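2024-03-11 09:14:02 DEBUG pipeline.ingest accepted 1 chain
2024-03-11 09:14:02 DEBUG pipeline.ingest length=1201
2024-03-11 09:14:03 DEBUG pipeline.predict start
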Amino acid sequence: MALKMSMCQFAVPLLLPDCDTKCTLMLWALRDIVKKYRPQSLSESKGFIEDRIVVSELPMISFVRLGECSLSKSEILNKLLSNSQQYHDTFIHGNMKCGDSPKRISNGLAEITWYLPCGNKNMDVFREPVAGNQQSRHFNRDALRKVAEKLGLSTSNILLKDKRVNDADFVIKLQKTISNVVENSKMKMGIDKMANIALELGISVDEYCPECMTAKKNADAITAEIQDIPKYKEDQLPLQGEIWKELTHLEKEEFRLREAGSENLEIYKSNLEDKKTELREKQNSHDMSNAMMCFINAISSPGIERCYFLKWMRMNLDNLSREKLSGLREQYKEKCKNSENKKEIKDIDRQLSNSSLGTEHFFREMGQIYEASVYLPKTNPSRQQLQHLPKLCAKLLLDGFPLELVDGDASSIPLRWVSDVLSQLNDLVSPKSKVLVVTVLGVQSTGKSTLLNTMFGVQFAVSSGRCTRGAFMLLIRINEDAKKVLNCDFMVIIDTEGLKSPELAQLDNSHEHDNELATLVVGLSDITIINIAMENSTEMKDILQIVVHAFLRMKEVGKKPKCQFVHQNVSDVSAHEKNLRDRKLLLQQLNEMTQAAAKMEKNEKYKSFTDVMEYSPDTGNWYIPGLWNGNPSMAPVNAGYSEAVYELKKNIIQTLGSCESSSNNILEFKEWMKSLWNAVQHENFIFSFRNSLVADAYMTLCTKFNKWEWEFKKEMYSWVTNAETRISNFGTVAGRSEISDISEFLTHLKGEACTVLAEEETKLLENLKEYFKQTEGHVYLVEGYKEEFSSSAKSLRREMENSVNNQLTAAVDIRKGMTELDRIKENHTKQLEGRPDSFRKCMTKFRSDFKDVFHERDQCQKKAKEFTDRCLRPAVENFVNRSLGPDIIGEMQTSKQFSTRMFFQYTVLLDLLSKDDFEMYLSFISSYEYYVKKWILNQILERFPNGSAMFEFEDQHVMLSISSINNAINKVKTNKTGNLKMFVEAVCQELGDKLVISKDALGAFMILNNADQEQFAHWLTECVKEMAQALKEKFKETDIHTKLKSLHVNPPNELFTKLIGCGKQCPFCKAPCEGAGAKGHSEHFTSLHRPQGLGRFRWCGTKELVIDICSTCVASESLFCCNATNGEWHPYKDYTKFFPDWKIAPDGSLQASDYWKYVLARFNNEFAKQYSAEPANIPTTWKAITHEQAVSSLKESFNIK
């Protein structure tokens, strides 16, 4: 509060009265105030002094009221401290608005303010700084007489004001008098030195409490040892120096492989990993320094003491580095005005980095101590003792302290450290606590930190010596009222270092750092504030190029961040209207930069900035006046600045309340951070981006789509079965069609099929449309795949249409063949009837039938049995066999391993790993289709071990058939047909679209014209009941292999076709595509690529198996040649020229390919022998991969939790 009051140039409490007669010296409350000024002595050199006001030794002028006086002491003081052009009410007086309010707690309050010169003698009231305080307490004349006698005051020490002297003249006279006193004063004392005097006078001091004093002692013990900052950092904070910078360089090189030269990439990567291990061992060889032990112990203390300690540390460190840094910062600004001073600028920048020391350096060291300990064995005592550090830092985050997200000196994120801190933070808050993220980006020294501090009441460093490096995140807990608007529990605020102009970026090669930083923070943000200072408008276009590039990258990976452009130092009330032309120019520049960025990313579909994100020049720009109202050092904060920032804040909160959050909870925020950082370390961000949240959303969509796809297929299977039944019964007594020509019937069925296919396609597309409307499950992250899945649905319809038409045509061809066969048989029968032996057979048959007619009762039972056995039973068995295949497929798809192609691949590979059998691996690689079909069959056998589950399906279909038969019998019986022949024909006709009735089998019953229909129906019903029981027994006794062979739809083949998808393989390593849908996707990809030696590739000279992995090669300068390149060598990076429908992303992490590395290292000799090659030259790091690491690699590649 005191800091904010001081910034507004209000007087702050010095002595605060208690409820009784005592008062308190507000030393701790004033310690945060830092002032910058230029005394007349430094006006020529343009130097300045910046210091904490409580330690500044300044002359102090006290103002007290003696007795009753009509003159307003406070008003006179305000005039005294103001020049004629810049009046400000520093002290409250009766003539101000609300200044006459009755005093309740301020009686006896002593306030203090400071006059600080700017070095301009025409503007400065006093040439030297001076402190002034005033008491609201009245003193009587006796007290005055005693003080006057003690100090030896005479009439020459008194200034009189009567009615003849106006206030202005009196103030000028008073200013001159005070100037003389101040310039000749020998007694100067800082407020901190007054503490002991205050205690002697019975005045308490606010910071003299046990917690604060203990914290001060601990902080002083650390900072007292600091003499030379660069040397201190080298001795006490060694892990974050050159070792850490070298580590970050190696990590980026592992991804970018720029320096590999002609060395084998996998061996080169292995060597890099070895170097990293050596550096971590070097870090672990350092004992924890005394400073770090004291620091960790101090922040482990109880809450309030920890807060005191960190503030003492911050103040002590600022005091130590401010003098050096302030000067360097000013030099840096001056030199940057002329880009020709390149060497000097670079040298000053290096000095700034080396001379900077803040609490962030101690936390950075803590992070490196923790990260190095992770390389130790889990049982190592040192590692176990450090496991509490992330939780310690997470508690500080909750207390409002910032966490360094990006180390600006090393241009890197200590990923394991930050990830574990966020994991611990998630454990400390309520489960699934939602967060929204606000970030600011902009040019150096444009007031980004001040903007965030004003907007959200936080305290990012803003003094000239403490310029932000890297990026810091801070957590704000949302109160209950704001939760209703924002629908979140916490807000994450990210403050970033300033982006450099291209000229400056070239000096220290920081253009990459700026791009990485912008991409990272934009990707993490729900809304990004682009801070533009109008005085830096010449740099604006170059800086916006970086920002637009970051937004385009986010658009490509499914993120939809919002942005607001903030134009600072625009004070005209009509700025918004006057700058209409500038806004149009800005949009024009944004469009140009969008096209340039799209060209760089080789994705030129984006032509304008609005293609990348929602943006309106009228609502997306904010004009904010300058921070100070007047000329420093005595300028107060501009009220217009605060008002404009408040309006911006309201707009941001409104925007956040209506936007889709990309990181709904802390763990998801962590996943975005990891995936974004891994991607920005590659040169090609979009191709390299992999994110578990996107992968989860994609997997969920695939699972849903596979379910809808199966419903589509199952419906068509059922329809085709029905259609084939009708075709088989066409032209027989069971046929129900009114169409007499079978070709015409085929055309009719194809039309019917087309209608059903259209309905099912519409249903699938509607499901897809509704799915993308939902707000849960990060659906918006996979919106880019919407067209692809729609295309897959349409492709499925085309495939099913072709398949259905082919099946209908085949069924009709078979029926035509059967009709022809029936005709031949009929002719042949007529010829046979003319022969004696044939006549005898007919007579025998006739006699048998005659006897049956004579004994009518026996004949009904016998013929019912024959009809059941010869006609109905084969038809029911056929119906079961046609229906059982889809049932088995549907049941298998309820298992997770059959839910998506990716999970299927993961399960097969995991099973191979558990078997640890070379022959199985060889079969999988060399005979993929054979191995997978066999594996699927084994899964089916495991799912139906004793046939019980399958028998349930069979029983359902048998009972359904029996129900249809009984219904047909009862319906025909009710209709009272003429004779038995008509009765049987009517029953067959009722079943004509459900069961295929054999025409030959019906012939035996057609002469039975006079049998009793009621009796026949009775025996037929009984026979059908017996048939049902007999079929159930048969199905129970039949083994599963026999059943699978007789099915109309083959489950292993169908599941293979479904899970193999488009059937495309990686052009380099032959890993199968995992794209959604069958053939509808436009881009092929696979989660896990293999060493090329597993696909029989070997080096021509040595005959050794090749260890190169295509997901590594595409990130390198390596070359390839193949048939597609006509034998010419081309960079792997340009593989899309030859294989445009393949996306081969670089490995998401260095461990992503560990699975196949482990397999090749494990069976190197066996593969070499089988392929008639020499064993591969296996890198040492591959040989160290364990079975558990291979499993972890598999899970990571397929995003299995």
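2024-03-11 09:14:41 DEBUG pipeline.report The two ends are 47 Å apart (CA to CA).
2024-03-11 09:14:41 DEBUG pipeline.predict end
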